[in-house]
Amino acid sequence: MEHKARPLNKKFWTPGVMVMLVFMAAGAVSIIARFTGGIGYVTNLSDARPWGLWVGVDVATGVALAAGGFTTAALAHIFGRHNYESITRPALLTAVLGYTFVVLGLLVDIGRSWAIWKPMFNWNTNSVLFEVAMCVMVYLTVLYIEFFPIVAEQFKDRVNLPGILSVFNNLVDSILKRGDAFVGKIMWIFIILGVVLSCMHQSSLGSLMLVAPTKLHPLWYTPMLPLLFLTSAFAVGYPMVVFETTLATSSFKLDGEMNILTPLTRITVFLLGMYMFLKIGDMIYRGTYIYLLQGTYQTNSFIVEVLFGVMVPWVLLLFKRIRQSRTGIFIAASMIIGGVILNRINVFIVGYKSPLSESGYFPAPGEIFVTLGLIATLMFIYRCVVTCLPVLQAPEEVSS
Amino acid sequence: MKLTRRTFFKFMGAAGSTVVGRASSANAWESKAPPDSYGCLVDLSRCVGCRKCEEACSTVNGLPAPERANCQCTIFEKKRRPDDTAYTVVNRYFTGKLDTFDKPLPTFAKVQCMHCQDAACVSACIVGALTKDETGAVHYDVSKCIGCRYCMVACPFEIPAYEYDDPITPRVMKCTFCYDRIKKEGGIPGCVTICPTEALTFGKRETVLKIAHDRLRENPGKYIQHVYGEKEVGGTSWMYISAVPFEKVNLPVLPETPSPKLSETIQHSLFSYLWSPIALFGVLGAVMFTSKKHTDHSNRKGGD
Prior knowledge:
A: Formate dehydrogenase/DMSO reductase fold, B: 304 residues, 9 helices, 9 strands
């Protein structure tokens, strides 16, 4: 593997980082409030509306947007398209952080956070959530193993622990070397396993709502929901890479990597087209288009999701001129990402209707602060990691 | 990636034999309803709204006393739902029925967990904290619960309530069918013991269902010809008969298909013996092996 990934030697404390810190502080305050006053103290959740922003965005959307990790691994390592290897590391980092924050979000959302280990010993194989939880748990472990060589690459032969810990320098170095050599031999297992586990839980996240046929709006409730979740995860993987790479290369003033991003958007045309075909085909097959013009906030949200999140960006990407423009692919990728975010929000929040009570729901400030705080922390750690580990592609002169 | 021909085939041989070795895949979905469970019939035409059942329920289950327990009038001005302090509540509905003096006639409806035969909450619960007991009770074991609230998402009757104000050890709260009482010989639920108008009838589900149909047949014109809960979402332990349409007393119109059927069928046909993940692993492994060989080959030829 010919990586030119290097740690970035750039100014760390920018105004953007300061803004992140403000959000992180607000999130921390809300999390403290949640663990002292209860979920009811900081959220607008109720008996009729048990899942809100934290499940819809922190968990479901978080998992979907981390799809860049397994889609790029599949492309570069399984399908042998080695020219894409430069994007696998940032995508892997996003997946590692994304899934870590899915688990952190879950810890805030579930009522008994200290009991999160219990599914390992109390199995309900009928439960879709059980399968999702198991997959996410194993996949997170796989992701950390996949990330290990990046850490090893940076610190091998230059372990230099501070103070008294320096007596462990040789030990840590040999752990890194042996671990790296061992993981390197069996890495192919983890790479395939990561893709398999992703396919399993990305689809099963869609199956979650199938147990409540009377509570999800028919525009979204379909036996195809797992397949739609899977294909939309496929479709959003490369746009996430485009989105991140564009942001990171602009922020750090690096090469835009259009030679890689443009071909990625061509694959996206195919993957997004497949999702669009299934989604619209399913709507026609089940005849749910009769709801489209009802004009309620639910049906309007569906129209926005499909029109601006799927159809428009698909058409945009058909044009060669847009695929070759940095701004063009950034806009299209952002729309696709927005469409998938809105889809998850629609399935878990907007399309959900309690059968008996009025359960109009809008997240409370506390919920929003927690979500924004988690996202800001994720971005902060991303910046820390790319600053000190070889993740992003950088020319020689800026590396440390 | 050190993927040699030998390790690959060794790995895939093991995986392949697992796939072949598994039994036939398409296990048809079967109801998991217990065979000889209990049931309870609510005859809405007999209920007078005395709310004694609410009081008995809170006493038996150690819950706070019902809101304004002796009030049988203004309490009905708001529609109440069971919550984390009350497993059952009675509501009053004016459905357009008039008495002999043309005054609107109220219908009172008690609501509690229906204890579904194939309960969505039981299927959904990530840790199996909710189980369908052989008595018919959908039983909650707080020691397993992690508080994910998927049961509340799944429930078609919007029943499980949550202790949202407890930061560390919140519980899911819902009618227990007085599980501790009915599992003993001759035990009956608290609410049934106290009902002064015999609006509640407890017994074996089969027996209670027969009583319901007998009442519908023996009182022509009095009842809607439907036993609510006989077939809704595959059948429930609590069932209702009524003189007014059920949707007018907040009992939702529901399909006869048990809620968990679709998701369980999908899950088990895809993941029993993990056949599909193993097969996918095999296919991806083969692709990886082929593409690697291809790359090695072109490298040897000096290509890049």
